[in-house]
Every structure is written in C-alpha cells, then in structure tokens.
Design goal:
This protein is an alpha/beta fold. It has 7 helices and 11 strands. The strands form 2 sheets. It has a 9-stranded mixed sheet, with helices on both faces.
C-alpha cells in the first residue's frame, strides 16, 4: 500500500508536530499510512519520485511566497524551494495533491498567478465560505455544505484564479478559498486540518509573526475556542479516502 507524503514547512518544531497530529486526526490517516518530512529538519531526498506515494499533503507555515527572497531566512528559503521543486511533476502528472493555506500560494505561483498581500488577506479567525457550482460537482467536496465556516489566517493570497484552474470555494473577504488543477491537484486557503484547539495553539506560537496585535491574543484565543467549525475536515477525509491505494 502506498503512503501519503506529508510535507511540513513550519520552522517551529512544536507547531509542526501539532499540525501533523491535526492532519492525522482530521484526515483519518494513521501515522504508518504517511511518510512525513519536516522540511525544517530535513531536506528532500535526491531522486524523489512522487509516483511512489498515494498523494501529497502540504501543511501551512508562517512564510509568504510573495516576500522577497532576501528577506527570508535561509531555512525558509530552502523549505520553499524544496516544495516548489516538486510542483512541475505534480501538475504535469496530475499527482494527487492537497495544499493547505501556504500550499495554495505555492500552487498558484507555480501556475503563473500573482500571489501577493495586495488584496484578500484575512486575520486569524473564521471565514464564511461558499461552494461554487463546480465545487458541488467535485468529489472532494462531497458532503460539505454549500456554506460553511473555516479557520483562516493569512497575509497573502492569490490575486486571480490561475490559468487552467477550477474555482471550488469562495468567500467574501477572499475569493479563492479552494481551487483544483487538472483532476487531482487541490489547494485551500483555509485550514481544513484545524479545529479551535489547534488555532488556539497557533495563536500562542505565532503571536509575534505579524498575523495580529499580540494584545489581541487572548481575545482571538477565546474566539477560536467558541467557534463552531466542523465542515472543512471532511475535505481532507474525502481526499485521503479517494486516493488510498
């Protein structure tokens, strides 16, 4: 049985470990069904063939695709370069891919769309999302209601739909909340793996990374704990169920 490749780009070990636990819990995968690479610790192996995996899941991270390269730490630049190096094979061979938050920036940029902080950033919190007509026909959104709340928190976003991509989910503040390229390459701007407790943990870890005024941390944490977000994990469950081999 092929495993799912899980790639993570969070430099903070505790945040990376917590995200991995969340991905397992929300996707229904067991740890032994995954091959995890924490890019903050290990670079990609040489001669890496993605056909060896059932699919690829890319987590989020505090970096921004649109930041100038000379403002990124060597670690952030290397992690981002590693993921970008896989995108030609993923898109050319239509390899099952689910990019979460950071992943939509990577996919959109690879496909030639502008990714920037000009418009569509969202503070940490929930966003009301709406499934498009194309989304209603997509198997990865099977069982997801036409309108649902999702956890967000991003400083940059795709400024347009990438050429050749299908628009699956939108919101008022950020139009491109979920897209598909080909038949199997997906990305979300929201966090399908996160529940209130996970967002509360990230608020603690990233209080100094520019997502919010640190004075607002307690209020945001209370908001996350009280939020009723239940639909997005279904997207991860549908993805892993569809591509298990």
């Amino acid at each position: 049985m092929k495993k799912f490749l899980v790639l993570q780009l969070r430099p903070e070990r505790e945040a990376s470990d917590s995200e991995f636990r969340a991905i397992l819990a929300k996707s229904g995968l067991a740890a032994d069904e995954t091959h995890r690479i924490t890019l903050e610790r290990d670079a990609l192996p040489e001669h890496f063939d993605l056909q060896d995996f059932a699919g690829v899941i890319v987590g989020g991270g505090p970096g921004c695709v649109s930041d100038p390269i000379d403002t990124k730490s060597p670690l952030e630049a290397r992690m981002e370069t590693d993921v970008f190096s896989l995108m030609p094979q993923i898109t050319a061979q239509d390899i099952p891919f689910m990019g979460c938050c950071y992943g939509i920036g990577i996919l959109a940029h690879h496909l030639g769309a502008a990714v920037s902080k000009e418009q569509y950033g969202e503070p940490i919190g929930t966003s009301r999302c709406f499934v498009t007509d194309a989304g209603r026909r997509d198997p990865i959104l099977n069982g997801v209601p036409d309108a649902f709340d999702a956890f967000v928190g991003h400083k940059e976003a795709a400024q347009s739909l990438p050429a050749g991509a299908v628009h699956l989910v939108r919101s008022g503040p950020c139009p491109f909340q979920m897209i598909r390229y080909g038949q199997n390459v997906y990305a979300t701007q929201f966090h399908p793996e996160a529940d209130g407790a996970e967002i509360q943990f990230r608020i603690k870890v990233y209080s100094d990374r520019g997502y919010f005024d640190p004075c607002d941390a307690a209020r945001l944490s209370e908001m996350a704990g009280a939020s009723h977000v239940y639909a997005p994990p279904r997207i991860l469950q549908n993805f892993t169920s569809r591509y298990r081999t």
